[in-house]
Specification:
Beta-Lactamase, 13 strands, about 300 residues, Alpha-Beta Plaits, alpha+beta, 2 domains
């Protein structure tokens, strides 16, 4: 048999003769026991090198004429480390009673578990990094990039499933005065407190809050019609108006100017729709601030 076919396998492969002397092993098998190949090959016996606890065929391998099922056993390495391995043994010549060599396949479950754990950790780190790139570090809301991705995805799904959702754009009134009068730290406190209160107390898990920039925010109210959206937005406006924000020895308060629109089958361009809702939010400012303006369907 040409043993070179086993050289690149990730599982360990060992070949031993009637006396138990190892005549071949691949790199994976050498790595499992932690002994260099040159110290094993043609020198060590299988049972001496691969110390397997409760190995089912330890005494009877000479009688094996067919491949055995994999057995999960504990292997002790030269350093005293214990590894969980799956082991199967088969004769080099199947069905023959005149075998002179046996092939052992070893699957390192401990290594697989560690690799899987490492893979999971790496995927978590990657996902966390990707999520962090889409979140506003100050408020925890989605940043413009993250919000745009969520928004366009929501638009596609709404079109495909013939569903509607409501889009809200709002701007904090006179926010510049807060920064000018109390400083930027006070402004940051307002942004954090307001966004946290809205996200944690006024929105559902399926709703999406984004910070578009500065003091401008947007909300996607999933599966929410315009009529339902009106009551939600009015509640948000009132809650913000009544929100008391402690800062040092002061209590700050702000109001918001809001725009509301319904994304439905009549909307052709998501970008233009967002722009239109943004414009009616500024119309609320022109009306005197602290109010809601609804985008009328054309």
């Amino acid at each position: 048999m040409n043993y070179e076919v086993f050289d690149s396998l990730l599982d360990g492969v060992v070949v031993f003769d009637k006396e138990g002397v190892i005549r071949y092993l691949n790199t994976a098998a050498s790595d499992i026991v932690g002994i260099p190949e040159k110290r094993i090959l043609n020198k060590m016996k299988f049972e001496e090198c691969f110390k397997l606890k409760d190995f089912p065929w330890k005494e009877d391998y000479l009688k094996i004429q067919q491949a055995t099922p994999y057995a999960e056993v504990v292997l002790s390495t030269k350093d005293g480390e214990e590894k969980i391995v799956q082991v199967s043994i088969q004769p080099e010549e199947h069905g023959s009673s005149q075998n002179s060599r046996w092939i052992v396949f070893l699957k390192n479950l401990t290594l697989e578990a560690r690799l899987q754990e490492k893979y999971v950790r790496e995927m978590l780190r990657k996902n966390q990094a990707e999520l962090a790139a889409r979140l506003d570090p100050l408020t925890g809301a989605f940043n413009r990039r993250g919000f745009d991705e969520k928004y366009l995805s929501m638009c596609r799904k709404a079109k495909e499933n013939q569903k509607v959702f409501s889009l809200v754009v709002f701007d904090i009134d006179d926010f510049k005065k807060v920064n000018d009068q109390y400083g930027h730290l006070a402004g940051d406190k307002v942004l954090k407190t307001l966004s946290s209160h809205i996200k944690n107390n006024l929105l559902r898990e399926s709703d999406i809050l984004g910070r578009l920039g500065g003091e401008e925010f947007a909300i996607i109210l999933s599966r929410c019609s315009l009529e339902n959206g009106k009551s939600v937005v009015e509640r948000i406006r009132q809650e913000v108006e009544n929100l008391k924000i402690p800062y040092e020895d002061k209590t700050l308060s702000v109001t918001v100017s809001m725009g509301l629109g319904e994304f439905n089958e009549g909307v052709e361009d998501p970008h233009e729709f967002l722009k239109s809702v943004d414009e009616v939010a500024y119309e609320s400012k022109r009306k005197g601030k602290n109010c809601v303006t609804v985008l009328r369907s054309s």
